[in-house]
Amino acid sequence: MKKLFLMMVMAFAVIAVQAQTENKGAVIDFNEKSKDFGDITQGDKVEHTFVFTNSGDTPLVISNVAVSCGCTAPNWPKEPIAPGSTGELKVVFNSAGKMGRQNSVVRIYSNASEPIEKVSLISNVLPKGK
C-alpha cells in the first residue's frame, strides 16, 4: 500500500512539473537589441528594423511601444504574432535639433513572459557642414 501511494505521489509530481514547463506563454526574442549608426549629420533620418520571434507557446500581443523622445517614431505589428512566427519593429530616428551622442530607447510592452523589452538606436550627431 505504501508503494502504491508513493508511486501515485511521484506520478502527480512529474505531471505537475511537466505542466509548468510546457506552458511558458509568449516569449519575445529579438535578433539584436541595438543598432549603432556611428556618425550621422544633424538633420539626417536613420531607420532600422528590429526582427523578433515569438519563441513561446501562446500568441504574442504587443500592446504598446514607447519612445524616449519625440525624435523617434516606432511602427509595430498590431495583430498577434503566433508561436514560432516572426515580426518586425521599425524605428525611425530624426536627428534634427540633436547634437552629440544619442541613445534612443524604445520600450516594448507585451503579454510576453518579460512584459517590457528594450531596444535602442545609437548615433553620434555631427553638425551640418557649411
TrEMBL record:
Presence of keyword Transmembrane helix: no
Q: Which residues form the signal peptide?
A: 1-19
Mind listing the UniProt keywords for this protein, alphabetically? Signal
Please give the Gene3D superfamilies that the UniProt record associates with this protein. Immunoglobulins (2.60.40.10)
- Note the Pfam families from the entry: DUF1573
> By what name is this protein known?
DUF1573 domain-containing protein
Question: What organism does this protein naturally occur in?
Answer: Indibacter alkaliphilus (strain CCUG 57479 / KCTC 22604 / LW1)
